Input
Amino acid sequence: MLDYRLDDETEALRKTVREFALEVVAPQIGDFYERDEFPTAIVRQMGDLGLFGLPFPEEYGGSGGTYFDLCVAIEELARVDSSVAITLEAGVSLGAMPLYRFGSEEQRKRWLPRLCTGEALAAFGLTEPGGGSDAGATRTTARLEDGHWVVNGSKAFITNSGTDLTELVTVTAVTGTRPDGGKEISAIAVPSGTPGFTVGPRYSKVGWNASDTRELSFSDCRVPEDSLVGERGRGYAQFLSILDEGRVAISALATGLAQGCVDESVRYAGTREAFGRPIGRNQAVQFMIADMEVRASTARLAYYRAAEKMLRGEPFRREASIAKLYSSEVAVDNARAAAQVHGGYGFMNETPVGRFYRDAKILEIGEGTSEVQRMLIARDLGVG
Output
C-alpha cells in the first residue's frame, strides 16, 4: 500500500515553516510587494531556520535532509507568498544544487557553507534574451586565455542574481565545438563583483514583485580556469538534470499557491456577507471552493509521486513534467476562482488573493513552459 503520510520529522518541519509563513512573512510581505523590494531580512530568517540547507549534507553546512523536505517547505511558504518561495527554490535548486551535484570538492567547500545557511545566495544563468525555451541556442561564449575563462554575452530573467546576498552566478557558455559540429556548452561560476560582469536593474514584473529578477551581461569577464563547474562540454546536460529536480520543486510551489487560494477563500466565504448571510452559504460559492480543493489536493499527489521516484533513484522525468504541468495550470485556475470568490477585493493588490492572481501565471512559463512539459511527456511515452 502506498503511504503519503509525512514522517514525524518532515511533519515537524512543515509545521515550523507554516508558523513562520503566517507569523513572519504574512504580516509584512504585502508592503515589500507593493514597494517592489527584496525582503532581505525575511530571507536571512529563512536561512536561520535552515531552509536553504535542507537537502545538503551536514559536512557542507546543510541539514542532511532530502529534496522532498525542501519541497514541503516551499509549499508552505507559497501558501502565503510566492516571492519568498521562489527565492528559496531558486537559491537551492538553481543556485546551490549545481555546485553540489557537479562542482569540485574545492568549489563545494568554498561556496556551499554560506549558501546552506542563507548568508549568501547563488543564481544560475541559462536563459538568454533571444533563447527562451530553446536554451540550447546559447550565444554567450567563454574562451580559455592565459589560464582564465573570458566570458562574453548576456542572460535574461535570472532569479536571485542581484540581491545584497548574491555572491555567485553559474552561467552556461559556448566553450568550443563538439566533434559532431554542435556547440560545446559548459557551466562556469562567476563571483559577484567580477570585473566585466554587470547586473542589470530589477525587472518591472507582473508578479513575484518581492523576488529579485535581472538581466546579466558579460564583457571580457575573466575568471580562473578552475571556475568550470563539472566537465567541460557537459554544462547543458547537467542543467537539464537540474531542471528535472527543479520542476518537482516548482510543482510544490504551485501547489502551495493553489492551496493558499483555498485557505483565503474559505476564510472570506465565512465572513463576507451578502443579502443578509455569509456568501459561503451559497451553493455556487461552495462548489467553486470544493473544486479548488480538489485541484490543490491532486496537484500535491502529483509532486509527491515525482519526489517519491526521485528519492528512490528511479527515472522521474515524466512524473516531474506531469506534476509541473498540472500544478502550474491548477495554480492559475485556483487564483482565478479565488479572485471570483472575493469579488472586488480579489482585484486589490493588497490582498493575498490579488498577489496570488498576479503570481500564478509565471508558473506556466518558468523552468519549462506548459508546452515543453507536454512535449517531454509525449516523448517519454514514445510519441513523435
